[in-house]
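Quick review question:
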C-alpha cells in the first residue's frame, strides 16, 4: 500500500513559477508509473504530465498540449519523490493538482494541492 502526499501549491501571479512535490511512502517510485493531474471547479480531472517507470515501462515523459514547454515532470528515486515544475503560469492553470501512482492493478492518489494563478 502506497501513500502519496502533495505539497508546494499556493497563490502565484501570472507568469510566475511553482514546483509541486509528491512524496511517496510505502512503495518505491522506481516501479511505479507517476502522473500529475488537475481539476478545476466544475471540470473533470485531466492528465497534465506523466512519467513511466524506468524499470517496468520505460519511455519518455508526456505532457498535455496546454502545458508543453512550461511544465516539467521529474522524479528523484533517492527521495522517492516526484516533482512538477511549473513556469509561465496562467490563470487557466488554476486547479487542484493531484499526484497519481500506478503499478499493475494498484492505483494510488494523493489528496491534492491547490494552485491559484491570479494577480
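Suggested answer, residue by residue:
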Amino acid at each position: 500500500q502506497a501513500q502519496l502526499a502533495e505539497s508546494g501549491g499556493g497563490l502565484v501571479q501570472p507568469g510566475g513559477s511553482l514546483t509541486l512535490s509528491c512524496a511517496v511512502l510505502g512503495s518505491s517510485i522506481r516501479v511505479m508509473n507517476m502522473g500529475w493531474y488537475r481539476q478545476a471547479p466544475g471540470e473533470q480531472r485531466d492528465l497534465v504530465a506523466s512519467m513511466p517507470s524506468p524499470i517496468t515501462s520505460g519511455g519518455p515523459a508526456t505532457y498535455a498540449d496546454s502545458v508543453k514547454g512550461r511544465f516539467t515532470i521529474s522524479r528523484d528515486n533517492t527521495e522517492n519523490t516526484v516533482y512538477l515544475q511549473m513556469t509561465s503560469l496562467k490563470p487557466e492553470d488554476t486547479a487542484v493538482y493531484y499526484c497519481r501512482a500506478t503499478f499493475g492493478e494498484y492505483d494510488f492518489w494523493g489528496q491534492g494541492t491547490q494552485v491559484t494563478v491570479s494577480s
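Why it works: The chain has a mean pLDDT of 95. The longest strand covers residues 95-103.
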